[in-house]
From TrEMBL:
It comes from Marinospirillum alkaliphilum DSM 21637. Residues 35-104 form the HIT domain. Pfam families: HIT. This is Diadenosine tetraphosphate (Ap4A) hydrolase. Gene3D superfamilies: HIT-like. Keywords: Hydrolase.
Length: 141
């Protein structure tokens, strides 16, 4: 079987690039600096579906991005979560949180309506992320 992105993830996010294991996506909601990492593996639902090497690689990619995102955004807190209640495909959320954001201090899920990025906003965000991640093995799209 081959990797196929869940339709809900495809509809709600924008493909930024690919790391060695995971697809890097931006949730299309400018209220939050919200990235997704989705291992490009068929039928991965739980972290326990990964072999040891894949598991280590996934968390290495999470750590590498987290080390960039928090200082890049000056976030008060960086949330890293795997839920999968609505979308069963294994995916990780990396969310820069701010005391001033629309959902602070609670979870962001179900708060208000998404405010989509403009093309200019996406381009600016992606450019800043590319510069900050220039040392990481990301193939940008």
């Amino acid at each position: 079987m081959t990797f196929e992105l869940h339709p809900r993830l495809a509809a709600d996010s924008l493909h930024l690039g690919d790391l060695p294991l995971c697809q890097l996506r931006l949730m299309n909601d400018q209220r939050f600096y919200w990235l997704l990492l989705i291992p490009r593996l068929a039928d991965a639902i739980e972290v326990t579906d990964l072999n040891e090497q894949q598991y280590v690689q996934m968390w290495q990619e999470v750590r590498q991005l987290a080390e960039v995102i928090k200082p890049l955004t000056s976030a008060d807190k960086l949330n890293v979560a795997t839920l999968g209640n609505m979308v069963p495909q294994l995916h990780l959320h990396l969310i820069a949180r701010f005391k001033s954001d629309a959902a602070w201090p609670g979870p962001i899920w179900g708060v208000g309506s998404a405010e989509h990025y403009t093309d200019a906003d996406i381009s600016q965000l992606k450019s800043a992320l590319q510069q900050a991640c220039d040392h990481l093995p990301i193939h940008w799209v």
